């Protein structure tokens, strides 16, 4: 895997920005229901209050992760043409000799058999690699290898 910030495709940026807007709206709704100075009633009220506080913390964590990813993608620039990055189309030859052309993407919004997300085992193994490189990655069946046959942006 490459060190440093990873590029982000325009489609992934838009998807993350949409998710961020939705999360911020959800957080505002949940935060508005938290009591400030009012005493909590019975144990059920207290449990409900704690659950909403946990929800706010979970939303804050995801919001922070998305904001960080958007900042990282902004400074990374486009993926290099000679190395696999987010947005690259890569032809790989698997250990059994089968070849497949996949697109390395940020997010899987819809089922797409040709998409390999950058955070999947194969995607992580491919990032930063060049044509001719062999990568090793884990699958549910065990460790396997693939060779980068060619790539394009």
TrEMBL record:
> Does the keyword field hold Coiled coil?
no
Q: Does the keyword Transferase apply?
A: yes
* GO MF annotations in UniProt: DNA binding; kinase activity; RNA polymerase binding
Q: Which Pfam families match?
A: GreA_GreB, GreA_GreB_N
Which processes are annotated in GO (biological process)?
DNA-templated transcription elongation; regulation of DNA-templated transcription elongation
Domain Transcription elongation factor GreA/GreB N-terminal, by residue range, is 7-72
The segment annotated Disordered runs over 34-53
**Gene3D superfamilies named among the record's database cross-references:** Transcription elongation factor, GreA/GreB, C-terminal domain (3.10.50.30)
Q: Which UniProt keywords apply?
A: Kinase, Transcription, Transcription regulation, Transferase
Q: Where is the Transcription elongation factor GreA/GreB C-terminal domain?
A: 80-151
Name used for this protein in its record? Nucleoside diphosphate kinase regulator
Organism for this UniProt entry:
Streptomyces showdoensis
Q: What is the lineage of its organism?
A: Bacteria, Bacillati, Actinomycetota, Actinomycetes, Kitasatosporales
């Amino acid at each position: 895997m490459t060190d440093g910030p990873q590029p982000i495709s325009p489609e992934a940026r838009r998807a993350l920005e949409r998710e961020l807007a939705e999360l911020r709206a959800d957080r505002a709704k949940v935060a508005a229901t938290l009591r400030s100075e009012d005493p909590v009633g019975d144990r059920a009220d207290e449990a409900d209050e704690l659950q909403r506080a946990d929800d706010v913390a979970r939303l804050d964590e995801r919001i922070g992760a998305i904001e960080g990813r958007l900042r990282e993608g902004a400074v990374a620039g486009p993926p290099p043409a000679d190395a696999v990055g987010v947005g690259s189309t890569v032809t790989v030859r698997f250990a059994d000799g089968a070849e497949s052309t996949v697109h390395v993407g940020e997010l899987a919004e819809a089922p797409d058999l040709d998409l390999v997300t950058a955070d999947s085992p194969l995607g992580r193994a491919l990032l930063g690699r060049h044509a001719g490189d062999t990568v090793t990655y884990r699958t549910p069946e065990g460790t396997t290898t693939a060779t980068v046959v060619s790539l394009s942006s």
